[in-house]
Amino acid sequence: MIVREIKAKSILSKSKISDYTINAYVGCEYGCTYCYARFMKRFTGHREKWGEFVDVKINAVRLLQREINKKRAGRVWISGVCDPYQSLEKKYKLTRGCLEILVRYGFPVRIQTKSPLVLRDMDLIEKFEEIEVGFTITTADENIRKIFEPNAPPIEERIEALEKLHSSGIKTFAMIAPLLPGAEGIAAYLERKVDHVLIDRQNYHYADWAYRKYHLNHAMYEKFFKQMKIDLSETFRKRGIPYKFLF
Ligand code: SF4
After folding, report:
1. Which end of the chain is more exposed for a tag (fewer CB within 10 A), N or C?
2. Per the confidence metrics, is the pTM higher than 0.90?
3. What are phi and psi of 21, to 5 degrees?
4. Among residues of the chain, what percentage have pLDDT more than 90?
């Protein structure tokens, strides 16, 4: 893993999904095989493989303090193209530093991660008037998780973290995206741990390697997603967990 400390030019960026997004890191230690964020490499000039480099924006907190005074309040997504609680956050505390500013200015926040390190910041999260914390969980099968997300925390740790947050009164959600085989088992683990669930499919562009490896084609994937939609709707409805498909 190549880690570089860099100085960013800006930090509170406009987002199509939320009003703003904050990415305190360029790159992600988890290196998930399906990660759409690898497109970043086109703009940052990294030659290393996705998952083998992280640039740390060491001035992220200072930049946010400067930028926030000039921007109207809006919802902030943390993070769009990296995991805000990848293990480097233990040392650099950039996500925490940004949250400290956002809570002071009353900006609503949506955190999305795969890491239980977010629990470190529960004291701060509890101070927000409007915040939700989501965990990405793509399958209930740990063997499949290891194929697609070899460097990310195990599923069980994510579910335990969701439970701790939810039972402390923090709004939580699960993001099932991209839908992987074994996703139909996730609902059983989410009862009384999330307020809602969002579900999205695989992006074909980034799944091409999987087609080659498993000799799959787009028609087989279409059939899989169609069936998953039926199965997941039934299982979430039965358990009374609010869910929304994004495809
Ligand atoms: S955790 Fe998210 S940002 Fe990081 S590699 Fe996986 S999908 Fe990409």
Report:
1. C
2. yes
3. -135, 150
4. 82
Confirm if 25 and 81 have CB atoms less than 8 A apart. no
31 lines ligand 1 (CB under 6 A): yes
Does ligand 1 lie within 6 Å of residue 82's CB atom? yes
Cβ of residue 84 lying under 6 Å from some atom of ligand 1 = no
For the segment(s) 134-247, the CATH number from 3.30.379.10, 3.30.1300.30, 3.80.30.30, 2.60.40.10 is 3.80.30.30
Q: How many CB atoms lie within 10 A of CB 169?
A: 7
- In sequence order, what are the residues at sequence separation of 6 or more whose Cβ sits closer than 8 angstroms to the Cβ of residue 47? none
- C-alpha span between 18 and 59 (Å, rounded): 23
